[in-house]
Design goal:
By secondary structure, this protein is an alpha+beta fold. The chain has five helices and twelve strands. The longest helix is centred in the N-terminal third of the chain and has 14 residues. The protein is globular, with a radius of gyration of 21 Å. It starts with a helix and ends with a helix.
């Protein structure tokens, strides 16, 4: 004889046994051969047309966006030795910081959006931070290392630490 209450308990128990790992939606992009990721909640939009003003040696410059001037951070020049040949940037990710300020990150290629399980986020080894401290801003801004399902390793960025 069919009992709806037994069926519901059996179904509920099976469902409870399957535990899903929470995921984070990330924007993934490449800069100078390295892959980076930021939380999608921090991305306001991606632009294809922008003009930089006042480029400094460290890769910072300004752009005018919605009647505001925002800082543009060229990660290839912040994290790596500046290359005399200037990379052509076709895209700009406009992001918000915790304090509400906006920054722009120029990219050569269109970024991708991925759902990454939280168990694929790993801590940065202490020896990596010690070995690079003082050379550039990467250790402070890189918060975690992520391995995607495709096997790609990406550096998860804390945008607020990019300006320090």
């Amino acid at each position: 004889m069919f009992s709806p209450s037994k069926y519901s308990r059996r179904f509920h128990n099976k469902k409870a046994a399957i535990q899903r790992t929470p995921t984070r939606k990330l924007v993934i992009f490449e800069v100078a051969g390295e892959t980076y990721a930021i939380a999608i909640e921090r991305v306001q939009r991606v632009l294809t047309e922008f003009t930089t003003q006042g480029t400094l040696e460290d890769g910072r410059s300004l752009i005018k966006l919605d009647a505001d001037l925002i800082i543009l951070l060229d990660l290839s020049r912040l994290f790596f030795t500046p290359n005399p040949s200037q990379e052509q940037h076709s895209y700009l990710i406009v992001c918000t910081l915790t304090n509400g300020d906006r920054i722009g990150i120029p990219l050569q290629d269109l970024p991708a959006i991925l759902d990454v399980p939280e168990d694929q986020f790993a801590e940065i080894p202490a020896s990596y931070r010690q070995g690079r401290e003082g050379q550039n801003a990467a250790p402070a801004a890189v918060e975690k290392i992520i391995t995607t399902d495709a096997g790609t390793v990406a550096f998860y960025l804390n945008l607020d630490k990019l300006l320090n």
